[in-house]
Amino acid sequence: MGIIEVEDVSFTYSGSKRPALDHVDLSIKKSEFVILTGPSGCGKTTLCRCLNGLVPHFYSGDFRGRVLVAGLDTREHEIWELSQHVGLVFQNPENQLFCLTVEADVAFGPENLGLPREEIRRRVEWALKVTGMWELRHRPPHELSGGQQQRAAIAAVLAMKPEVLVLDEPTSFLDPAGAAEILSLVAELNKRLGITVLLVEHRLDMTSPYADRVVVMAKGRIALDGPPEEVLTSREARELGVGIPKVIRLYELLAERGLRLPEVPLSPGQMASLISEVVRCR
Amino acid sequence: MSSLLEGLAFQKRDSLLHKLDPRVKLFYALAVMVMAGVHNKMLPLLVMLLAQAPLAALGKIVRLWARTLKASLPLVLLIIGTNLFFTWLRGSLTDLYIVEDILALAVRFLVFVASFSIFTLTTSPDDLSLALEQMGVPYSFCFMFRAALRFTPVMVREARTTMDAQRARGLELDKGGPIARARRYIPILIPLIVNAITRAWSMAEAMESRAWGASRKRTSLYVLRLRGRDYLAFSAVLFSLIMAFYAKFYLKFPYIIPIIRSALGI
Amino acid sequence: MPIEVQYVWYTYPSGIEALKGISLTVEDRDFLVIMGPNGAGKTTLLKTLNGLIKPTKGRVLVDGVDTRHATVAELSRKVGLVFQNPDHQLFCSTVEEEIAFALRNFGFNEEEIKERVEWALETLGLEEYRDVSPLMLSGGEKKRVALASVLVWDPKYLVLDEPTLGQDYAQKEKLREIICGLLGQRAVIIVTHDIEFVVDFRPRPRVALMADGRIIAEGKAEEVLTDPELLSRASLVRPQVPEVLFNLREKGLPVRTDVLDLVEARDAIISLARGLA
To answer: How many domains are contained in chain C?
Structure first.
């Protein structure tokens, strides 16, 4: 069984007529890196909220089906319990930092759990170090760059020791340098610590090289789910308005002219290697 | 007004005053308030005001402290003005002793500002909230207080952006009479309020996701412990407080106007 | 007559030097993109164009008028600035009123207001939302309303700050279509981080790169955006197409690298393959 099991989940926010999620099934294995994408308003954020219990505990509405997180049914466990398994990082780093120093913010979650002080200190130190925020721990959030703020937010969530990190468009407020900083951090957490990642993103050119799977949502449903090479070359992905990375479009253009590469490239470096192999063999 | 608020915002410095326990500093600010409250004559109040200057120097915040005092001058003038006006109505404006008492009221206000400014300039809101927490104030209240301070600069920045955005759409804020002007602030207030609500929602969401309210017995990473210097400072403040009461009941302060007069030989 | 930014310096009251000697000219019907990292001074520069910020040193001339000698409202008639985040400005109860707001400020008569609002709604494909509260719209629609609320007075210079921020691919494509429709009749100036968005424009814009309060490069998109050294100085991620070609050249394959266009890149690679075969 996967660490996250979404089983036939439908959800309609109270006061809304249209369901935000419509019979969604999704299974994520431990240590997987999954990208979730799709046009705005397709239900990505609602799905994220289901994973740590914000739906249905914080956002009420009509909830059907079930979500299992590390074996816990989200309907029967509270957000604070679930958030020790699934850490949620939001779009705007500013609204996730409530304290006047990074360190105090990272301590916020474990403090709420009422853990022993020594344990809190250990976790805070660990979370600050794995996110590269140790040196900046005494800084107030407004003195940090956007990338650093988002790193602090990730550290704050990691201090809850979750097995899964769910990030809802964490780079959309950042500049390219900040975005790259966050993406490589997330990739490293996944690779080195085996943390399962579900990353909501529009920018597939920057993110797909890291992904084991790409899931595309549309109108509250899962439309596509598979390895990035497969999903991003499918006709459906284009029709759904997914931004196909330029390297994949170039790959397709070359194929049309008879230059077939042995693999679907996800990054310019990979593509260049593939091309050089092919043209040198000819 | 904005510089008055700025003058109350915490300044990170490395000073003895900054290192003191926030509870001691809070006690200091409250004690000065009481001392100034029980006295109503110019001489003791002036002494209280001047005695705080070395403290500001100790906290390495003299410039900001002085700026706060300067920024409170309009309020001071208002206090003096209204009092003088009512005295004039009663026809006793010619009595210089009454005038001195009125000026003493203004100095008393300055003493309040001076001590609170020293307190807030040298005490980080995180520390203050921790102090309140350890004094038994409920955590949710302390958190609210801290978050309000954390987000004040964010809201100020947002207000500026909104103003710029609306001015770029031809809104002229300082045109027309007072009512027309007030109306022109609607396009600025509405986005600000809407954004504040949106922000509150996303904050609540983020707080919930970090186990807000999970445990009845919340642990705090930081603990305040009183050290030797804190006890020393506390005793000094307590001593001043006792002295102030003693002075109030057993000493009679002269007016300073006749002193100045005789010094100048008028 | 153009906008001329002449050796402009600007220091914020906090002491931060945001602009350090910027010179730039925007001609009539120009298409200019300004790129660079956060904190490079891009937004500050935009605010000097309509007088929201007056230079500490140097000057900005809008059609010959020094911005220090005109009000923001006067300058805005010519320089329409659309801010990054629509949530900072939308406040009316209907989209129609939101779009008409500026026209009322500028003193247009009712008949003209009606005509222009109609035109703006149509240009941005917002007719169906005219009676809807702008606050109820999705992010992409809000962006379009904000754009419409400036475009409506038909400024000679249209300035967009980060128009693609938080937009998905389809919304960006829609925005591109709209912007392309506006080119040729007025000058369009865009500040953005989104390099792939810029690369796909036809016609291609002129590009200015900013870093640390200065303009470090200005020229044709094909030249500036394919120069890896310049891009890294402006903390930009290189566009994928020239990046592939660069990697090929690094592997010792003779291929040109000043290419942004997919089809051109394809042809370059195909001819490389033929040449080697």
So the answer is: 1
